[in-house]
Every structure is written in structure tokens, then in C-alpha cells.
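Folding problem:
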Amino acid sequence: MTIHSEHPFDTPDEERDPVRRLRGRIGGTVSLWTAGRGVERAGLTVSSYLVATGDPGRVVGLLHPDSDLLEQLEETGTAVVSLLGLSDQRLADAFAGVMPAPGGPFRLGAWEQTEWGPRPSSSATWAGVRLDASTRHDVGWSVLVEAVLEHVVIGPEDDALVHRRGRYQRPHA
């Protein structure tokens, strides 16, 4: 039996796409974007986003073009952007589609329906946003969307869920 220090089937670094490698090294906090009501709810784990201050403040995100979330966001025009913590890894993986969630990811945990969409009850920091439809652009393999921050709730500061180089990491102070 051989013990490998790395995954034996991983593509060697020198053969990987350098742009994806650069993006992976930047890393970022993990958010969950959700939209819709009832059976029409959709969500997506998003770590490629930024918040711009101003009057009004805005959030810009890169979303998967075939995601149910993008479709629901464009249909309803609103969404909830929740910041995830270290204890939310399972939720993040389920909404990213990398972990099974029997019955769907909305069965994981409790949810509160807001006027912008569903929000995980465990999420203390979140925002209700309204899509600025004129700002939708195809960017690389993603769709860039911009939304106005209409409602912001800031909860206690806790350990943010950080994703970097394909894995979750503890944030550094």
C-alpha cells in the first residue's frame, strides 16, 4: 500500500489552467445567494463577489450561467445574500452541488422567508438585494450580475467560511 501526499489522480500544476490557478489563490469568503418562494426557491454558493459602498451600496457577483439561482433571480428580481460561517460547510457544499442533499439543499437547516427570498435562519449577517437587470454581462464562464443593497443585517462577527485553492480554510486574523 502506498500513501500519497497528494491526490494520485490530480492534474499536475504545470498542466492546469493558469487563470483558474490564479483565481484559486485569491480566495474569498463564502456567501449563499437565494431567491424565490416555496417550491420555486433556488440557491447557489458564491465566493466570487464584492460589495461596493455608495448610495446605494451594491453587490456584484459571478454566477453560473445555467444555475437555477440565476434564472430565479432574473424572474423575481430579488435575492438574499447570506455570509456563511465555519459551521456552514455542509450547506455551502450542498448549494455548490458537490455534496448530496436528499430532498434538496433547502432541507438542510431552518429557513425564514423574507421579501427578497429565503434566508438560512442560522445566518446572522445577510442582505436583501434587488437586481439591476441592465448590468448582466457574460464574463468568462460566468454571468456578472449587479444588485442594489436594499436591506442589510449585520450580526455578531464570527469565523467566516473562506474558500481558497479548492478547499475551506480558517480565516487568518
The first helix runs from residue 18 to 26. The radius of gyration is 17 Å. The longest strand covers residues 142-153. The chain is about 15% helix and 35% strand.
